[in-house]
Amino acid sequence: MAKPNTPVIEIKDLKKHFPVKKGLLRRTVGHVYAVDGISFSIGAGETLGLVGESGCGKTTAGRAVLRLVEPTSGSIKVEGTEITKMSKAELRPYRRQMQIIFQDPFSSLNPRMTAGDIVGEPLLVHGVANTKERNEQVAALFARVGLRTAQMSNYPHQFSGGQRQRIGIARALALGPKLIVGDEPVSALDVSIQAQVINLLMDLQRERQLSYLFISHNLAVVEHISHQIAVMYLGRIVEHADTRSIFTRAQHPYTEALLSAVPVPDPAIKRQKRVLQGDVPSPVKPPSGCHFHTRCPYAVDRCKVESPPLREIAPGHHVSCHLR
Ligand code: SF4
Predict the structure, then answer these.
(1) pTM (2 decimals)?
(2) Which residue, judged by its Cα, is nearest atom 5 of ligand 1?
(3) What is the domain-level CATH number for residue 269?
(4) How do residues 44-79 score in pLDDT, each as one tens digit?
(5) Among 56, 133, 229, 253, which is disulfide-ready with 52 (CB 3.0 to 4.6 Å)?
(6) 238: CA distance to ligand 1 center in Å?
């Protein structure tokens, strides 16, 4: 049994490097440093927003946490138990506790299965319930996520985008998980529907003490749901703090640039616009020193040669920048 206050998930120095193979003999000629030593923990009923541009490694990080891709090194603890090296059979009970919601609800739902079967499938796979019990549990899940039980026999194409994401959420809830990884779960939805789905996720969190790892390229989307935010750039976390500190006292130039794209509701408050130049460099050959130096407006010579460590500059506020 987990000790009180043990995080639901604790990640230490997690790395995922994909080999780059070339030629007839498929020799390894390099690596994609998709995730390069990240650490964080999430408590019960808490949300960590993991933010960064596309290509920064956040999706791979989410999958490595769930061991949907095998980490290269590092540690993953679920309620204090190390699961990083567990066999598939040993991992099975932990898989039930950790579920994922995908970005595109249409491509993640099997078009040949009814919505009821999609939501009930995890129960079937884990041998949780007989047909009658399963149908009752699926009907309760449908009602809880705001779908009508009459819709259980419909197919995914008969639902709207927002309803399909509700099916994805009901499926993720089926086994009573403790942690849900949301990989851009609202990015494909209209703004008004995004708010509804985020409100549903927050209600479910309060009811069930769920923990979320909420992955998004958009800081505005994670603001309301997150208790803490980690900003990722080229496989590394460059800033990590509680949500209020990130939005009022961001310290890393990359976070500042992401924030400048977030609309401010009060027209009296002006945020300085910082447009990021260029794209995220290739994670196969990341820039030397501080990975961000090729796009940073404050870069000095030291930034090109020396990698800044992630330092705690205020209680709970970590930043990786030589100038902070
Ligand atoms: Fe910019 Fe240098 Fe700080 Fe990196 S270490 S964010 S390049 S100022």
Answers:
(1) 0.92
(2) 321
(3) 3.40.50.300
(4) 999 999 999 988 999 999 999 999 999 999 999 999
(5) 56
(6) 10
